[in-house]
Amino acid sequence: MNVAPDFASSPSDAGTLEKLRLRLGQAADAEGLLDIAYTTVDSPVGTLLLAATPKGLVRVAYDIEGHDRVLETLSKRISPRVLRAPKRLDAAARELDEYFGRRRQAFDLPLDLSLSRGFRQLVQRHLPEIGYGQTRTYGQVAALVGNPKAVRAVGTACATNPLPLVVPCHRVLRSDGTPGGYAGGPEAKVTLLRLEGAR
Amino acid sequence: MSVQPFEKVVEQHGGTVLRVCRVLVGRHDAEDAWSETFLAAMRAYPDLPETANIEAWLVTIAHRKAIDVLRTRKRQPTPVEEVPEAPTAFGVPGAADGDLWQAVRALPEKQRQAVAYHYVAGLPYAEIAAILGGTADAARRAAADGVRNLRKNYPGAIEQGAPS
What we know:
The complex is a heterodimer of chains A (199) and B (164).
Chain A: H1 13-30, E1 36-41, E2 48-52, E3 57-62, H2 67-77, E4 82-84, H3 90-100, H4 118-126, E5 136-137, H5 138-144, H6 151-159, E6 172-173, H7 186-195
Parallel strand pairs in A: 1-4, 5-6
Antiparallel strand pairs in A: 1-2, 2-3
Chain B: H1 6-25, H2 27-44, H3 54-75, H4 98-105, H5 109-120, H6 125-132, H7 136-153
Helix pairs in contact in B: 1-2, 1-3, 1-5, 2-3, 5-7, 6-7
């Protein structure tokens, strides 16, 4: 058995580490190393993960999507230089807070759409044209993007929207008026439609 | 390429690296050494092979950064207007573990490093030899000598099992 002096952690380490981690986020950002900054915020539809690249907001994720899994996917698809660094998400967090408080109807944030490509990205670019409190059917959105037969592909584009809430895929419904699927679950979709007075 | 978000690396190893840095450069400069270590690690992280031993990799970086911090200290003494709360960068008067840090500070550099990497980071001697140069046996001797010196100069040292 080896005998060594005790270098165990002290209770004050947690506070020191918290301070150091915050400082690391700022230093990494200043040096251009913070490829993905993220934070979590509370909302009426559960805890939301917000992640941004230097280009803009890249991902909004619901609790039920599994935040750890979402971060791993970001790490694989964009960069593993991922840190919890709330500062870059300040504007997004504030605008979401205003939205849930019914003080904001449209988001004014730089977005990074690099997680989607092709037709899906095209659909996601057009979704903000559906105004607050309005709804469209998947078929109407297909027509909106100039491909009226691509109803199913529009469904996929909405289902894979990396920026729910901010890119309002919750305003797209089935042609029979039922909500249809949603990343945050059908209840979250209904909650948002009610919030906006669309239901 | 590494796929785990870097945040997880900080979460899992931040505490150990902080304690290693304290042994290497003292409590006062440990925070600078920690910051420099993780910033450099984050820069290199995307190129780290997936099979790499992350803790050994971090300790290797901390080893280099600690040497930098100590060199900078020697060149630039602490400004006088900063009234020191402690007589040295290591000792905190009245703190229960003040004597331990004084004893650690008094160790020869190699012994201090070997103690940090084996008893704090828990690295095997082969890994420590790769960081310090020399053989695994030499690393083992440096750690053993370091602990013997500590026990001699710091009577409060408590016994505990450690990975060999």
